[in-house]
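Our working data are protein records whose layout never changes between entries. The record below serves as our worked example for the rest of this section:
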Amino acid sequence: MQDKLTWWRGGVIYQIYPRSFLDSRGDGIGDLKGITAKLDYVASLNVDGVWLSPFFTSPMLDFGYDVSDYRDVDPMFGTLDDFKALLEKAHSLGLKVMIDQVISHTSEQHAWFKESRQNRTNPKADWFVWADPKPDGTPPNNWLSIFGGPAWTFDSRRQQYYLHNFLTSQPDVNFHNPEARQAQLDNMRFWLDLGVDGFRLDTVNFYFHDAELRDNPPVPKGESKTLGAPEANPYTWQRHVYDISRPENVSFLKDLRALMDEYPGTTTVGEIGDDNPLERMAEYTAGGDKLHMAYTFDLLNKPRSASYLRHVIERFQHLAGDAWPCWATSNHDVERSASRWGAEEDPIAYPNVMLAMLFSLRGSVCLYQGEELGLPEADVPFERIQDPYGKVLWPEFKGRDGCRTPMPWTDGIQAGFSPVEPWLPVESRHLDLSVSRQQENPDSTLNRVRRMLAFRQTHSALFDGDLNLVDVGEELLGFIRQNDQEKVLCVFNLTGNEQQTTLSADVIRDLDEHGFNTAREGNVLTLPAYQAAFMHIA
């Protein structure tokens, strides 16, 4: 069994996007009471905990990732008492609760920034990143915002520019200022004292910037661009050497870990969007004195062949040392995996094997709401687009609304999410994949996920064992998970064609109760389309 203090190590964390999970108040927007009402469902998936995207006080220009009060709940989602009730219910079900922390930037409505922008001499004048214009009045350097345009906005009161890596309404906190750093640590202590079990850290490599404000160099012609933004975005044309992932970040992560260590059993998972994401993941999670886990965009992008997956695993293992990854194939920022990876595959069978592969990797897993249903990306018409990112880069990039539409609980009115028209439209294709439709079908994606995660819990090697890749042919992905108790060979056919391979290992017995069907004669293994095999080997 897993140690209670290291529950996260190999744990499966279910990500909930509060606006779109369940509306308990009839206003078209999901809320904390709605989440609490569905925690029994979450527990039934056999996951270890939940991660809640932001529910803090916010003007919602970036839907909660622009925080104006780090220590309170936005009335849209309920009250602090509602959160405490959610926490109590989750813990009673054996679920851990992790919450988002967006500390690299605030909302322009935050009291800190309101004070900081008044003049250059106030107590918080240096809590944000301010810089003088160039002599011709242009921004201090060439840094770009991920959401489009320069990463600098001029403020007439201070006659200076302020830095924002995202929207102009999301000014960057100056982490070179020790008081600002400590204030953010104190905000996290507030939630730890309430009893949360950990944090998902938004843009964890964005905390520090180059104090000299040097220009970023361009991406050399023919070299790969960052995975942290769509290719249509000019942000990908730069090498992000000076605006993010600065060496000073490591020292702050050690301070953060010291805080977490005061609360045994808590954990952190950092989001890394970087030109060299796996290197950064290894740097930030190795040594046991920084982040517990991190995830990158390597499995949140379009490449997904067996050879690509082998490359990602090999590269991480080469870099990792004792670093611990957290893998995800979908979240609130990217096209759903059933469409991004599975568009040309069987829409029912492919998600099953893809998720089984995800659950079998060495590391922890984040499972995004609706992924257990095999939901495809929703088609949101331009007139209903809410995401500011999508409005800027339309039509080449339609934004993130397609993965944020309401969770389909039933095939009835508004998919059982709300009695009224919700903030984003219900995708009609999701109705046939609703929870109520899938509950009674033992072979549905929902029940296949439950079965696979239950199977995983009975095989300790699948959540804490080492991983060694094995050669099972170009079209298959194979690896061995091994700990002191067992040695499990895992083989995945992520294609629509039958595949065959000859195993080099001696099979002791085939494992079952995972829901997949394969055939083996001696060491010759045959995998029909979209199937997986799990075997105890010598």
